[in-house]
Amino acid sequence: MALPSTIYRANIQLTDVDRSTYEALQATIARHPSETAERLVLRLLAYSICYAPELAFTKGVGAGDEPDLWVKGGDGRVTLWVEVGTPEPERLLKAARHAGRVVLVAGAQNRSRWEDQHLARLAAMPNLSVVGVDFNFVRELADGLERSIAWEVTITGGTIYVTTSGKTLEAPLELLAGLPLSEA
């Protein structure tokens, strides 16, 4: 028998000064049995970093042909495709050919090696932005992860601050390729 997904409920108070976005977000997220806590945290961070009213979580790792988050237009086409981690570059290149805009929130232990191998090729795509997040920041958030998540997220000056359980963590949002999200 396959293991069931674990359900998380997230309440995020988002203050994105860089994009003039101030929202109280609520999301229910399924964590696939094969998904790490760090990857779930990256999906939540990507939700905050790329937030738009139509942004939605997909089936994620449970559906190989879908991104982690997306915005679909009225005609069913994907206008924003959001990936997390360090995916195969072919996946991002294919997404960039079919979606209006693609954002990768890159965060993994092997990120620097992945950047050395793939970033130059990806940077040539005009509709692709790659934002780097320090993996130690992600890991620290994952260490305190509970099924009921309450975060206060502030993004300002290219830095993300997350307050949870009375503790504030911060990390730079490194634009590795493409347009800044505030200009997209």
- Overall average residue pLDDT: 92
- Biggest beta-sheet profile: 10 strands, mixed
Strand content: 35-45%
Query: What count of helical segments does DSSP give?
Result: 4
Q: What is the H-and-E element order?
A: EEHEEEHEHEHEEE
User: Distance between termini?
Assistant: 44 Å
Which residue ranges are poorly predicted, with pLDDT under 50 across at least 5 consecutive positions? none
Helix content: 10-25%
* Count of distinct strands: 10
Side by side, the strands of the main sheet go 2-1-8-9-10-7-6-5-4-3
What structural category do the secondary elements indicate? Answer: alpha/beta
Assembly type of the chains comes to single chain
- Give the radius of gyration: 15 Å
Shape: globular
Overview of the structural elements:
It is a single chain. With 184 residues, the chain is of the alpha/beta class. It is built from 4 helices and 10 strands; from the N terminus they run E-E-H-E-E-E-H-E-H-E-H-E-E-E. The protein has helices at residues 37-49, 89-98, 111-123, 135-143, and strands at residues 6-16, 21-31, 56-57, 69-72, 78-84, 101-106, 128-133, 148-156, 159-164, 167-177. A 10-stranded mixed β-sheet has the order 2-1-8-9-10-7-6-5-4-3, with helices on both faces. Helix 1 crosses helix 4. The protein is globular and about 40 Å long. 32% of the residues are buried.
